[in-house]
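Incident log, structure service

09:12 report received: a user says their structure output differs between two submissions of the same chain.
09:20 pulled the input from the user's history:
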Amino acid sequence: MTRTIYYTATTLDGYLADPDDSLDWLLRQPQEAGGAGDYDSFIRGIGALVMGATTYEWVLEHEQGVWSYELPAFVLTHRDLPSPRSTTSGGSADVRFRQGGIAELGQEMRDAAGANDLWVVGGGDLAGQFADLGQLDEIVTSIAPVVLGAGRPLLPRRLDLELMQVDRNGAFIVAQHRVIGSLAEDQERSSSSSARRATEV
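09:34 re-ran on a clean worker, output below:
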């Protein structure tokens, strides 16, 4: 069964990038190939990926227009964006630009993943949109020993999670969480509000 996994790196205070969208803080961290949270191990279980426009533009800029992914990639955007020149293997990139929401496109993306998993590359609000619909299954974070104080948030939602595994890779704490759902306190407030409205009718 296809799972939707948000796999990313974050600072200790929960930011994906600094206010200028820089990842310099991340790229200088030591990491062991083949260790916990290793990209090569993770990507073997992925059938398709999805990202927002800002993440896509960052990848194109930092890879000089060459696409490093060989899998179907969905880019959710309302703007016209350039296609990659080629993949790292020299072939044409399977990048699919879409303007709909997760509710409309989720099944298409899961179908593209086949028997493997769907990777939410970023950003945090995109992962949050999957969570809003109950379609985000796991979050795998590599937590760097960096505090930024501001920037792009990891996941701007209120969620309860279950810690499934924690390990270390180089400078990173690697944590795997299962998404339970919206915060219990929020559910209780919503239920209380609904009950009050019902008694007022």
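09:41 both user submissions now match this output. Likely a transient worker issue. Closing.
09:42 reviewer note: DSSP finds six helices and twelve strands in the chain. The two ends are 43 Å apart (CA to CA).
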